[in-house]
Design a protein that fits this description.
By secondary structure, this protein is mainly α. Helix content is 57%, strand content 9%. The chain has helices at 2-35, 53-62, 67-76, 82-94, 125-135; strands spanning 111-116, 119-124.
Amino acid sequence: MQRILSVITVVLVSVCSLNAYAAEQSREATENVLSRVNNFSLGMNGFVGIGSVGETELIKILTYQDAGAVFLRIANNPQATPEAKLYAACGLKKLNNKNGEPNLTQEWDKEVSVLKGDVLRKEKFKDVYFSILKHGCW
């Protein structure tokens, strides 16, 4: 009987560990996907009216307990696209960030691809960023 309980305990611990590992891998994948987006778009897009990948990942990260730290990591990541940094700014604004300020000055004069409805435009990073600070994203 004791042996059966030991085996069950080992199996349960193993399953829980694998589940936690898979969740961590999923979190890392979500952060990586958001860091590489190449357009900034909120709301429904295109003829069919679907949400963007970036917004979907942003919403997932907002559910994390350490969402502010994740958004700061993306905002300060030199490998992240300027569009990804705008999504991070949305997340930080939504959370009323108290974890520190992102350093985005190197992005100021870059152009970003912004999709509104079915129109893709190039806009200055700083214009979109200050609009996020002033109005938020939703």
